[in-house]
Amino acid sequence: MIQLDATHDPARRSWVGSANDPATDFPIQNLPYCMFSSGAEPARAGVAIGDGILDLEGALEAGLLAPSYASAIAGCRGTGLNALARLDRGALRALRLRLSELLRVEDDATGPHRDRLIVSARQAVLQLPMKIGGFTDFFASLHHTERGGRRTRPDNPVPANYRYVPIAYNSRASSVRVSGAAIRRPNGQWRRATGDVHFGPTEALDFELELGAFVGHSSVLGDPVPIDRAPDHIFGYCLLNDWSARDIQRWESVPLGPFLAKTLSTTVSPFVVTADALAPYRIAAAARPAGDPAPLPYLHAEADQRDGGLDLLLKASIQTEAMRTAGAPPHCVTTTNFKHMYWTVAQMIAHHTSNGCNIETGDLIGSGTTSGPTDESRACLAEITDGERPIALPNGESRTWLVDGDSVLFTGRAERPGFVPIGFGRCEGRILPAHA
Amino acid sequence: MIQLDATHDPARRSWVGSANDPATDFPIQNLPYCMFSSGAEPARAGVAIGDGILDLEGALEAGLLAPSYASAIAGCRGTGLNALARLDRGALRALRLRLSELLRVEDDATGPHRDRLIVSARQAVLQLPMKIGGFTDFFASLHHTERGGRRTRPDNPVPANYRYVPIAYNSRASSVRVSGAAIRRPNGQWRRATGDVHFGPTEALDFELELGAFVGHSSVLGDPVPIDRAPDHIFGYCLLNDWSARDIQRWESVPLGPFLAKTLSTTVSPFVVTADALAPYRIAAAARPAGDPAPLPYLHAEADQRDGGLDLLLKASIQTEAMRTAGAPPHCVTTTNFKHMYWTVAQMIAHHTSNGCNIETGDLIGSGTTSGPTDESRACLAEITDGERPIALPNGESRTWLVDGDSVLFTGRAERPGFVPIGFGRCEGRILPAHA
């Protein structure tokens, strides 16, 4: 499964100078895809490199990419990366190799074209990277489940099914937006402590720090995807903020699960970090706590147990309106790692399709809140504050839940000795006041 | 809201003879849209009339429809009725008037074209009528909720939120199929009475008799649709079978609601009966039981209370393999009426968007199981048999849950004295054995 090649070589450097900055998320070893537009024209497919974006249409026109990629690249125009994501893994790996060759210092094919090929990311508008059909959100952190359950089900915080079922619910695709889009505080109803049922702006707006996976190859209705084939269906990964209104959620979720508490909007980062780029950061699936049952056979594959995990550092920060005005940077409130997940992404795909349900190119699979075992790795406010113990911010402000004007920023980074670190870019949204 | 016009005139008859048969679902007063193909070419938009389908592209080419409809009709080709559904209500009403004029006995414009205009429904392949973005399933029958709750929550069968919240969950759009598509029995996991967790073919496969509504006009993210504008967003209605695996459902649904129990597949009828066609059958919203709270203000509009209900007779029938072999007709197991719903479709739309979540053209809104107060109106097997009291079929067979080879047929009919009855066509699916 894990295939390292010249694209992961830490010695490789790019003629795009900013890509060689150790702090960049987008060195030549990353090469994530995105959809961008630099004016009024429809968005087109690009590849992030340092502070720039390589224009794939431009590279094709300059004769730098094989004509066999032409229809996939053209097919992205004005929609999303879906046409690229449909390419088979071999073609995608070959494209990555070619892009890495074109962008490395030693390249001499791009010479006369370099100015036209690279668009400054600052001048580009980044769009939703994929046209999303279905959005499924999992619940893959046992730590998140346990902390949430301690309040609502103190005697039995982890549901009996949790260690057998990679629990998920269908979420809402229409309201997924790319990083930077504002989040309108939702109105909704809930029962107050006084007993009356109230409708108004949520008083418990939260973030959930998640990893998102985009489906590349579709599957066929009626035919489950076996777990050892599941990785073939993943195009790549993004950061995902599953904004949640806790008061609405508590009231509406019996018996069919969360609905309006989650559908208000969901934010994703604009870059799809490919499965190939993440190959060096694959690790063993997290060890299950002693006494837990082994995964059922349809959720178990040796290769997945061996390298189905991902070592990804994930952070969430808050910047209030006052902090922004004062020029204070976002304050980090969560540092966690995707390696703590109870279920791997392959297990999620195998479970999702185990009943024959088909997945489609562009589907978004959320991991659920990526909380780890330590206090600093609690990946939503519900876990951090429990609605009662506010976070103290450096400027003297405090937060139990999000306040209008707050922005929440997620970042993600993959690091491993002997490799150049790669990142996910920014996943950010600012809260607007509710409609009256 | 309710606007009756010449298209509803019971005296109107069609030159398509089969449309004048009192038993047809598709008299000239109905004119539902569909997507059909009559060969290898992509599906195109049509209108059901008796045993035929009026080819909208053909009518346009023959100069029988205004050129202003050309792009909407062409836009449906190979996809779904979405481009037609995006037309504003005035344009749709004018199109309906024109189609009714063209198809009535007195018409003389169609004369030379009639043979080419009408395709025999028997020779056409009907497709999924809309390209579906989101599929949301409500839970709008208090009777269904109460009967289900009696088993799982005997002390408190109706959740505390039910009379305030039009409860819904996001369901799965990718696996929605048109009537006639086979249903593969899903595999899944659940905990047996013995305590062990089992993975295998569901042993409790059920149907749910629902009404589906297709969204016409999209709304904007962040902006709720007020209840008095909600009807403007409904293009039309279909029948919907929300196939459900009860064993999987019971095990997986805590705490995030049903997932694989519902995503195996969903069947819809191929015809979209428009809101205009159903105008004569609008009635007052169902009276709430004494003591129930009034709908919260965002769920209350006088017009909706006055005529937001729909008087639609809905039936579910089962035909086993043995019945089919013997030439026995499907056996009716449910007769219910949409007028029993606790929540109106406008209330569903207002609630769905109350947090700012946007709805989009082609979204499918399911009503939830349409059970009524009487035993004969229990609209799924879970209610009828409770998993324990099998239904006796006329040939001596019995059913607690569905068996491989069974087919389930839904029909729907709107009747009112002084009007010609209209129907929904067939919504049917047959169960295939599970994959080993």
From TrEMBL, chains A, B:
Ca(2+) binds at D137, E208, E210, D242. Pathway: Amino-acid degradation; L-phenylalanine degradation; acetoacetate and fumarate from L-phenylalanine: step 6/6. The keyword Cell cycle does not apply. Residues 29-129 form the Fumarylacetoacetase N-terminal domain. The active site is at H144 (proton acceptor). Its EC number is 3.7.1.2. Mg(2+) binds at D242, K262, T266. Substrate binds at F139, R153, Q249, T369. InterPro entries: Fumarylacetoacetase, Fumarylacetoacetase-like_C, Fumarylacetoacetase_C_sf, Fumarylacetoacetase_N, Fumarylacetoacetase_N_sf. This is fumarylacetoacetase.
